[in-house]
Amino acid sequence: MLACKEWHSSGCYGPMTDLKPWGPEPGKAPWSVFFMRVLQVEVGEFPNTKTFSIPISCFHCRNPACVTVCPTGAIYKRKEDGVVVINYEVCIGCRYCENACPYGNIIFDPVEGVSKKCVMAIDRVYNDSLPLYERVPPCVRNCPAGARIFGDMDDPNSIIYRTAVRKGAVPMGPEYGTDPPSLYIMPGVQTNESTRIVTKEEPEEFALRTGAADLPKLLQKLSGVKPTGGHCGGGVGNAKGQGT
To answer: Over the range 204-239, which residues count as b (16 or more CB within 10 Å of their CB) and which as e?
Structure first.
């Protein structure tokens, strides 16, 4: 959560507004913009209980409910990479998308008056000034447990696809019909062969752990693609929610 917020506090998709984040005033609740949240889910019966941490952010669904309700086309699915973004310059703050998302993955920024959400850190992924293996979302880059993997789920030869198949990864809320490509490996299944924090001297292991080893192939496939949405502008959604 914090790595995501730190990266997006500036640039196209910021600011990440905080209003009284340390506690409410009388009659007022704190309001903080986060692109990710972590749910703590307890299972079992006392005293035999376990608590699992479930990170949740935009799933960039193949059939996103949010884009179908936007009256201005501000929120749309990019044709190039399937990332769902919001153009802040077009958003009118109606919050229809926030209510349409069955997962609660869109938040309203009352200061800018627009909806905001995870954008897969595409301004980082397509930033060619960064070292290649650093061009993954900050939530993946900074996970000390190696629990997150980034890549192309449409490529059956990618690390993330093969890992998902091998370990039986499942989507959240398949009954909603949104077909999210972001999947979860259920508790009890080892998340990765290597879960320790790697050093700068071990880039190959880091690349395999995070899925970054597939970046050369993925970025070649997406050559010339630039970030859009946020304050970067660059498109609106058509009737089908695809960016134009």
So the answer is: ebbbbbbbbbbbeebeeeeeebebbbbebeebbbee
